[in-house]
Design brief:
Number of helices: 10
Radius of gyration: 22 Å
Structural class: mainly alpha
Order of helices and strands: HHHHHHHHHH
Shape: elongated
Domain HTH tetR-type: 28-88
GO molecular function: DNA-binding transcription factor activity; transcription cis-regulatory region binding
Keywords: DNA-binding
Pfam families: TetR_C_24 (PF17932), TetR_N (PF00440)
Helix content: 55-70%
Protein name: TetR/AcrR family transcriptional regulator
Number of domains: 2
CATH topology of the largest domain: Tetracycline Repressor, domain 2
Number of strands: 0
Length: 250
């Protein structure tokens, strides 16, 4: 009986285990397609103008099928923003880990934020503009604000350290930070890979502008390694050509 029992268990595993894995794979694929469609629609027409019916139509599913994978449209938005913000923070912390100079840190922050918005324009647009769509006072809103603030702290500290060491001369640190970040995030609106300037050229020019804004001494700054950019897993692949190698975007 023990032998028969073992054979039966192996048969069950081969038969049902594979089916369970197939179901999990299909669920994962459906979840990915829903989130990619949500990024596309939220960026193109805005969160408020996008309904569950629009999402269902985009991925060829029923409304009930959508709700099998997401509890609500707002929960979906919060998830997209949470993953994107954490990805940006993690990538930034890896890039800055061994960088001590305030000038080098600011240069990395400028080039990485610029490149992130240029290569993932739809994800970053949702991340930057749809915070207003989360319910005031909700736990999700508080979490996303905390993540955003954690990222901006890297900018605050780099600028403050530059001022305290005499490397930067700034009248208003907050206004300078906001101006530089706005310059970087604006690339999601206008940058095109087939435009007049390459992404490397845009990043280099923005770093030069940023260091001039804080009145830092002119110096040669190493080019950003594009493979270090954050992974935004649900950026629609054909929204805009990404200059990074394919393996760096997986």
């Amino acid at each position: 009986m023990a032998i028969h029992g073992e054979v039966w268990l192996k048969w069950c595993y081969r038969t049902f285990g594979r089916r369970i894995m197939d179901l999990k794979d299909r669920d994962a694929d459906a979840s990915r397609r829903i989130r990619m469609a949500a990024v596309l629609l939220f960026a193109r027409q805005g969160y408020a103008a996008t309904g569950i019916r629009d999402l269902a139509r985009e991925v060829n599913m029923t409304n009930a099928g959508i709700y099998h994978h997401v509890s609500s449209k707002e929960a979906l938005l919060a998830d997209l923003m949470r993953v994107a913000q954490r990805g940006l923070i993690d990538a930034t912390e890896r890039m800055l880990r061994d960088v001590q100079s305030p000038t080098d840190r600011l240069a990395l922050l400028i080039s990485s934020l610029t490149a992130s918005h240029a290569t993932a324009p739809m994800t970053t647009q949702v991340m930057d503009t749809e915070l207003r769509s989360l319910t005031p006072g909700s736990a999700a809103l508080d979490e996303i604000i905390a993540l955003r603030d954690a990222y901006e702290d890297h900018w605050k500290h780099a600028i403050a350290d530059g001022v305290s060491t005499g490397a930067f001369r700034i009248a208003d640190q907050k206004l300078t930070r906001l101006a530089l970040m706005s310059m970087c995030t604006g690339t999601s609106e206008w940058y095109r890979p087939d435009g007049d300037s390459t992404l490397e050229q845009v990043c280099a020019e923005f770093v030069a502008i940023g260091l001039a804004a804080v009145r830092a001494p002119v110096q040669v700054v190493a080019a950003l390694d594009l493979s270090l950019l954050p992974d935004f897993p649900w950026e629609p692949p054909h929204a805009r050509n990404d200059p990074r190698p394919v393996e760096a975007r997986r």
